[in-house]
């Protein structure tokens, strides 16, 4: 499997992600949205965006590993944050990028502020697609 990441010169610069990620060959893993839930299914970090981002990153690393993938194998990410505050969105983006999951966000990435997510008290969710090794 080979990944090609492109930032065309005629499009705006990005803060670390690439506009296009091409998977040359191989299989793909589509991960369910990773939520800030502990092993018992409880939302962690009530009201704390960064604590929830940490749990989401930990869960995503576990699920990627189960699929036989690593953060660098991610070809698409979508981060959902219950906020319309640019500072909050940026803080969650930075926290995820600074985590062990950070290489996942060098691929095509989207960060969205949303009105709500699936669990009461949930503030962050992460959707990943990974290219699996041949």
TrEMBL record:
It comes from the Bacteria. One of its GO terms (cellular component) is cytosol. Gene3D superfamilies: RutC-like. One of its GO terms (molecular function) is deaminase activity. Pfam families: Ribonuc_L-PSP (PF01042). InterPro entries: RutC-like_sf, YjgF/YER057c/UK114. PANTHER family: 2-IMINOBUTANOATE/2-IMINOPROPANOATE DEAMINASE RIDA, PROTEIN HMF1-RELATED. Belongs to the RutC family. This is RidA family protein.
């Amino acid at each position: 499997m080979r990944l090609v990441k492109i930032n065309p010169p005629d499009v705006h610069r990005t803060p670390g992600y690439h506009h296009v990620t091409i998977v040359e060959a191989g299989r793909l893993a589509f991960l369910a949205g990773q939520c800030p839930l502990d092993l018992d299914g409880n939302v962690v970090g009530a009201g704390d965006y960064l604590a929830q981002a940490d749990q989401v990153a930990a869960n995503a690393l576990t699920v990627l590993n189960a699929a036989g993938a690593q953060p660098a194998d991610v070809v698409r990410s979508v981060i959902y944050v219950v906020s319309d505050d640019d500072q909050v969105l940026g803080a969650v983006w930075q926290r995820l990028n600074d985590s062990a999951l950070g290489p996942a966000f060098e691929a095509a990435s989207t960060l969205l502020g949303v009105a709500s997510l699936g669990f009461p008290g949930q503030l962050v969710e992460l959707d990943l697609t990974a290219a699996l090794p041949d």
